[in-house]
């Protein structure tokens, strides 16, 4: 029983860190409903495998706490790249036809992808279409989710705004070498939801722990 449970628990820890960016052993124990002692054993194993790292943070007058986060190797455990081949291919294309031509090719690719997404998302409310878009992204290796920002004093529109979050990047290696693809991705989301404005709120490529997008109907403006 224990042997089969441990790999699942370790994966749960890695997924939690992917979503939360960083956490303590106690917070992990509370979130996963496992004893702190068991969590620390898993953390020690994951650290030995090079999948997580920690830093010591002083809290009050007590002993420093270990705050854990994923290492680069830990992030690479999730579907987050189409391997080095894509980057190598784009490098070769850049050497052959030039950077401007490659940028044009990438733009065409995202335009094609946007049309494909739009056909799959179909009609419906903003929330229904975003929910479908999130399912598509999940099928492509993104750890994606969405939630609604309920109307408040600053946002008194009848239709709530929506946040789309991606906790990993399925093309991270490409994005690091060719950051323009992130701009194309933003344009693609806007094309998929033509009656909405799409604003990037978080960006993995700038060191944040997720990519986030604020989506709102143009009728809210």
UniProtKB/TrEMBL annotation:
<dbReference type="InterPro" id="IPR036390">
    <property type="entry name" value="WH_DNA-bd_sf"/>
</dbReference>
<dbReference type="Pfam" id="PF13412">
    <property type="entry name" value="HTH_24"/>
</dbReference>
<protein>
    <submittedName>
        <fullName>Transcriptional regulator</fullName>
    </submittedName>
</protein>
<dbReference type="InterPro" id="IPR036388">
    <property type="entry name" value="WH-like_DNA-bd_sf"/>
</dbReference>
<dbReference type="InterPro" id="IPR014075">
    <property type="entry name" value="SUF_FeS_clus_asmb_SufR_cyano"/>
</dbReference>
<dbReference type="InterPro" id="IPR011991">
    <property type="entry name" value="ArsR-like_HTH"/>
</dbReference>
